[in-house]
Amino acid sequence: MDFNVKKLASDAGVFFTRAVQFTGEKFGQVEKTELDAHFENLLSRADSTKNWTEKIFRQTEVLLQPNPSTRIEEFLYEKLDRTVPSRPNNGELLGHYMQDAAKDFGPGTPYGSTLIKVGDCERRLGGAQREFLQTSAISFLAPLRNFLEGDWKTISKERRLLENRRLDLDSSKARLKKAKLAESKAAAVPDFQETRPRNYVLSASASALWSEEVDKAAHELRVAQTDKRTNMTTTHNHLQKELGRFPNAFAGNPVLPMASGGSSPQGNATLPPDAASAVETDTLKIEEVQAPATGTRKAKVLYDYDAADTSELSLLADELITVYTVPGMDSDWLVGERGNQKGRVPVTYLELLS
């Protein structure tokens, strides 16, 4: 067994130094380096995204499968990488029972013919429910699960790395401050018995050493902070795009025909205001949108954003664009213009200027 005592002692020393720095920050006894304001905002958004995604994921699982025993069984099959046995749902069972009863009563009887029609509708409703559950699991739950089990674990790991870099930086700053204080005290000591030059040289050497450590730690902190900002922004964009595809997953599904003599429930259905607004936004042709005479504003881009389709505009952090709103557009989006380019942009990525 390869047991490196020196490495173990070094790691223990680093851990102890970080623990001392962390404890001092909690009690307000030492200084703490504040991270970039935009990065702090991104961290806050990451925590909020994780918390709400977890709640939405759990509640969606309960909605799609209310039976806790079945949920546990599906979870075990998933972890064992095995296919969940196919079972008819309640609608399909009811439809089969009705059709079997119709055969027993006779298709020519009024009761039997009615059971055949209603049973066929129930069977197709059960099939539609099964398709909805499968599509929801693939298009809605899968991105949420991938975020919680993959992306979020990566973010948490890199946040710990960033926090360690910051603690190392602040610890180095504290040691540099102490070295400079010792240097100034040594310089003020009377030059009796030639003690001052020796102390001065030692303290100056320590000061230079800690100054180099501070520069190194600061560089590592900046690199780590930049990497984590890029990673978290990319993850947020990926999750947003994956969930944005969910409403379109059912766009191509045909409406199930009803039995003759019946009326389609979809025929009398009306879309809620939010859904109607979403449909109107999807049908909005960006190339035909014209900027209003008044109401345009300048906005600073806070984070990079990759367009999900041709109706959106890709963004680069810190650039300035012109934004405005149009009737029927979702309140979370604006129309952005940059030169001859135009497209929808998310409001959360912008800082609106006067």
UniProtKB/TrEMBL annotation:
**Domain (SH3) ranges:** 294-354
One GO term under biological process is: membrane organization
Q: Which InterPro entries match?
A: AH/BAR_dom_sf, BAR_dom, Endophilin_SH3RF, SH3-like_dom_sf, SH3_domain
Database matches in PROSITE patterns: BAR, SH3
Q: Which domain of life is it from?
A: Eukaryota
One annotated Gene Ontology cellular component of this protein: membrane
- Keywords assigned: Coiled coil, Cytoplasm, SH3 domain
Pfam short name (any one): SH3_9
Enumerate the subcellular locations listed in this protein's record, separating them with semicolons: Cytoplasm
- In this chain the BAR domain maps to 24-252
- Which SMART domains does this UniProt record tie to the protein? BAR (SM00721), SH3 (SM00326)
Question: Which coarse location class applies to the principal site listed for this UniProt protein?
Answer: cytoplasm
> What family does the entry list?
Belongs to the endophilin family.
Q: How does it assemble?
A: Homodimer, and heterodimer with SH3GLB1.
What's the protein name?
Endophilin-B2
